[in-house]
Amino acid sequence: MSTHNENPSGDEHAIVPHGDHSLAPADPIADPGLHHDEPRLTDVEPKAERRAERQVAGMFALASLLTVAFIVFYVVVGIHPDDPHDGVDVGDVQVSNLTLGLTLGLALFLVGAGAVQWARSLMTSPEVVHERHELRSDDETRAATLNDFETGTEETGFGRRKLIRNSLLGALALLPLPAVILLRDLGPNTGGTPAQRKEHTIWAEGVRVLTDVTFMPIRAADLEIGQLVNAMPATFEELPEHGPERINERAKSPVMLVRMLPEDLHIAEGRENWGVDGILAYSKICTHVGCPISLYEQTTHHMLCPCHQSTFDLSDNGKVIFGPAARSLPQLPIAVDSEGYLVAQSDFTEPVGPSYWERTR
Ligand code: FES
After folding, report:
1. Candidates 282, 289, 303, 328: which one to mutate for ligand 1, based on the most atoms within 8 Å of Cβ?
2. CATH of 209-358, one of 2.60.40.3080, 3.40.50.720, 2.102.10.10, 3.30.750.24
3. pLDDT for the residue numbered 244
4. In ligand 1, which atom is closest to the CA atom of 291?
5. Pocket flag, ligand 1, residue 310 (CB < 6 Å)
6. Residue boundaries of the structural domains of the chain
7. What is the mean pLDDT of each run of 10 residues along the chain (361 residues)?
8. What are the C-alpha distances in Å from 178 to residues 181, 194, 324?
9. H helices of 122-184, where?
């Protein structure tokens, strides 16, 4: 037996137009699932209907204008320098991102808002009445199901074999616990401070810097202004003697040596003696997700990661100036030994590679 009202058409499904109460079920209170709204202002007042129509059309028109503005800004606010040696101006990139984001974002918003206003104010919103069938099974089916269940229980001996039953119930009760315990991993990282979690490389005080081509030590005088050399520690090949546990430290050791004019450098406080005559050493491993990098733009001192375009300014302490990397390229403090060869002053002072160590929540 249905608890719903019969609709006037006598069909199982009937559509009642919004505001047309002549076809609505006679007793909506008896069926709390149905809502028979009052007619909207736009249903009864032609002026209100026209006003709503103008609002919707206005939003769509404004969205069109903003889309055109997006294209204009894309063309006018260029981020490409006239001189290809000048590099990308960060200010231009910010202005370009702002104008493009605002125009396209607002255009999309207005299309959505116009559609919502159209649906709420002007579209016919019929109420559909769907008569439900009886959900309860008949008595015969219920009795047969109960009988099947009891027969099954009897055959398994679930009621008689108390030892098995109780041990099974105990096992099932404990099974959800691992899932609850694993929720702890969603909480803050409790593995200590970033400094405590720092992974080491094989750089150490006095270790010479070798080129990764000839494996020869490098003198400061060997590097010219604007030159970049991929390098590694002199102990790189000795590591098998240190055992496989140092393989990870070895993999994180490659660096880039770059020589710039000392007057172009913006040295951070505390790093004043980390370089030699404008020669600085940076980790070669991107701090985003760890790609090796060496796409160097000599005139701007920018280092680009080919994987996701993170860009680091080597003249400004390896600072990130573009892209998804969250922190600067780690810098290796270097000096010269008594024979004029470049050597490390110590290991890196911060973790090398992706920034997972930084995440504390
Ligand atoms: S790994 Fe360098 S930007 Fe993603």
Report:
1. 289
2. 2.102.10.10
3. 60
4. 1
5. yes
6. 1-135, 139-186, 209-358
7. 42 48 46 60 90 94 94 78 54 81 94 93 80 86 94 85 89 89 69 57 91 90 93 74 66 92 94 95 94 92 94 96 93 94 93 69 38
8. 5, 28, 35
9. 139-156, 162-174, 176-182
DSSP state of 203: -
CA distance readout (Å), 128 to 162, 232, 281:
54, 74, 72
At 66 the pLDDT is 95
Query: Could you give the maximum distance between any two Cα atoms of the chain, in Å?
Result: 103
Q: For position 132, what pLDDT does the model report?
A: 80
Listing DSSP states for 206-234 in one string gives: TPBEEETTT--B-BGGGPPTT-EEEEEET
Using DSSP's 3-state secondary structure scheme, residue 151 falls into: helix
Which phi and psi (to 5°) does residue 233 adopt? -75, 150
